[in-house]
Design brief:
Helices cover 64% and strands 2% of the residues. The protein is built from 18 helices and 4 strands. The protein has helices at residues 9-16, 30-41, 45-58, 62-86, 93-100, 103-138, 169-183, 186-212, 235-246, 266-295, 310-317, 335-367, 386-402, 409-433, 448-462, 466-490, 500-529, 542-565, and strands at residues 154-156, 162-164, 320-322, 328-330. Strand 3 (320-322) and strand 4 form a beta hairpin. Helix 2 (30-41) packs across helix 12 (335-367) and helix 5 packs antiparallel against helix 6 (103-138). It is globular and about 85 Å long. The two termini are 15 Å apart. The mean pLDDT is 80. Keywords: Membrane, Transmembrane, Transmembrane helix, Transport. It is found in: Membrane. The chain crosses the membrane at residues 31-55, 61-83, 104-124, 162-183, 195-215, 235-253, 274-296, 339-357, 390-408, 414-431, 443-463, 469-486, 507-525, 545-565.
């Protein structure tokens, strides 16, 4: 027996057909799934990333960047749709990988999804806190700044005093509220999410409708600004770099597939939910970007990169008629407050869906024995994985409360792109190994579509910064530690085989050795190109460099011992 043993399709189908009080309750229909997808996709990324990516990388051609990112998502989405209709079990890419490429690959992608969902939810909740403060200030309420920051954050007040944070309290509150909504039931969670989606999409449509009246054609000329001579700054390379950056705004449609086991008719509804939410959001993104770069020159959106609200505020300030003095007088200044509300709602629904996705992935991993059984415990009344929800309530809220929310969007992007690649590979494998298995939806033009999905997603990954790759490799090595020292010994498929430990030592050890060597190489390469902080004179990310070196060296010893020396 090997750690690459695949989970039998018969077992997966049996899990999908389970019923009773100790199983997930089927309550979602097609529109509920589409709403979940939109809830996760349309977040504050739409309002902040669009303008900044236009200013720094693509100009008006940010519209093309959104289309390229959407193509990558669509190619992966078609593969997701086939798997979701074929294997209607919670777990998303983790479950699909288990059925096609075996336990070890499934563990890697499951651990990767922790990065996407849990860490992403913590980061989003930290940002939600900042936007809540802006909204409260606009209505005359001022929260003590100590309760808006982590103990590692400081702020200089207008009088010159420097204040150190105590706890990011609003971030804890929003995570707790969304977790309680999830515990009460998927149907109720879906209803809350649908109300939020209706409200925030309405505001986006108002922005688009109002903005179209004030588009100035000269702002779209040139549509593709000439490259500055530096890779990634305008021109073709700028469009691709912007596509990799705005990809963060698309993250979330894959969360739909985690709800497969709570869907009434998954074979029909899952493909429609995945592809429908992606299509709706792509159209909104393209229109939003076209309006934003049309009402104001793209260069204006780089005026204050520290203020994430600045791009939308600038666009709204330019939605009006130009007076005799040559100054534009905003016709709808009230839109700014509405946009803040849309961002708060957008973040709340993103947190809700990310927390739901994470608990469902761990539910499947726990059922397989790869993580403790507590994560698959089902509430007898609400039929939700309540203990898993409570665990992530604690984990995510603590992370948001006491760790600075400076986790860059690219970190979540690279994890999701990696998941998309494995799903595309999985379809190719499944068509070879199980060509006659029943499918509610078939990915068209196989092998072309999966291969293009792999290439497009990897192409966008290649354009992400080196420090993003560093953090991904670090996270993967930690995952190998957990698998080697816990999961392989508790797995339902492999724990009964006496030779599995030696098999795991060999393959996991060799994989860990490779990751450790790559980590050290990336750390050195990143250190060579890192910028110097003008204030301190120190190289930026020096701590990441030294930690990566020590971590990599230590794991070369650990994995070397496991793979090359240990015989039992």
């Amino acid at each position: 027996m090997s750690i690459f043993k695949r989970k039998p399709m018969s077992v997966l189908i049996a899990e999908a057909n389970e019923s009773g009080e100790h199983t997930l309750k089927r309550t979602l229909g097609t529109w509920g799934l589409i709403s979940l997808g939109i809830g996760a996709i349309i977040g504050a990324g739409l309002f902040s990333i669009t303008g900044l990516a236009a200013a720094d990388y693509a100009g008006p051609s940010i519209v093309i960047s959104f289309i390229i990112a959407a193509i990558g998502c669509a190619l992966a989405g078609l593969c997701y749709a086939e798997f979701a209709s074929m294997i209607p079990v919670a777990g998303s890419a983790y479950t699909y990988s288990y059925a096609t490429m075996g336990e070890f690959v499934a563990w890697i992608i499951g651990w990767d999804l922790v990065l996407e969902y849990a860490v992403g939810a913590a980061t989003v909740s930290s940002s939600w806190s900042g936007y809540l403060d802006k909204f409260l200030q606009s209505v005359g309420v001022n929260m003590p700044v100590e309760f808006l920051m982590t103990p590692f954050d400081t702020m200089q007040l207008a009088n010159g005093d420097v204040v150190t944070g105590i706890i990011n309290l609003p971030a804890v509150i929003i995570v707790a509220v969304m977790s309680m909504v999830l515990i009460r039931g998927t149907q109720g969670s879906s209803f809350v999410n649908t109300i939020i989606v209706i409200m925030k999409v309405s505001i986006v449509l108002i922005f688009i409708a109002v903005g179209f009246q004030y588009i100035r054609p000269e702002n779209h000329v040139p549509f593709i600004p000439e490259n500055t001579g530096k890779f990634g700054e305008f021109g073709f390379s700028g469009i691709i770099r912007a596509a990799a950056v705005v990809f963060f705004a698309y993250i979330g449609f894959d969360a739909v597939s985690t709800a497969a086991q709570e869907t009434k008719n998954p074979k029909k509804s899952m493909p429609l939910g995945i592809l429908g939410s992606l299509l709706i959001c792509t159209v909104l993104y393209i229109l939003f970007a076209f309006v934003m770069t049309g009402v104001a020159n793209y260069q204006a959106y780089g005026a204050d990169p520290t203020d994430k609200l600045a791009p939308v505020a600038i666009a709204i300030a330019n939605m009006g008629d130009m007076g005799p003095d040559g100054v534009v007088h905003a016709a709808y200044p009230w839109l700014n407050k509405s946009i803040v509300i849309a961002i708060l709602l957008g973040y709340a629904s993103v947190i809700l869906v990310l927390l739901m996705g994470q608990s469902r992935v761990f539910y499947s991993m726990s059922k397989d024995g790869l993580v403790p059984k507590v994560f698959s415990a089902i509430h007898p009344k609400y039929q939700t994985p309540h203990k898993s929800n409570l665990f992530f309530l604690l984990f995510v809220s603590l992370f948001a409360a006491f760790v600075p929310g400076r986790v860059v969007g690219e970190m979540t992007s690279i994890g999701t792109l990696f998941a998309f690649i494995l799903v595309c590979v999985g379809v190719l494998v499944m068509r070879k190994t199980m060509p006659d298995a029943p499918r509610g939806f078939r990915t068209p033009l196989v092998p072309l579509i999966p291969i293009l999905g792999i290439l497009v997603c990897f192409f966008m990954m290649a354009f992400l910064p080196l420090d993003t790759w560093l953090r991904l490799i670090l996270w993967m090595i930690v995952g190998l530690d957990v698998y080697l020292f816990y999961s392989v010994r508790h797995s339902n498929l492999t724990k009964t085989d006496n030779g599995i430990a030696q098999n795991a030592n060999k393959y996991v050890g060799l994989t860990g050795l490779a990751f450790s060597v790559v980590l050290i190489g990336l750390a050195i390469a990143h250190h060579q190109v890192s910028e110097v902080d003008p204030v301190t004179g120190q190289i930026k990310d020096a701590a990441l460099y030294y930690f990566s070196l020590l971590f990599g060296i230590a794991h070369i010893l650990i994995f070397g011992y496991k793979s090359l020396i240990q015989k039992k």
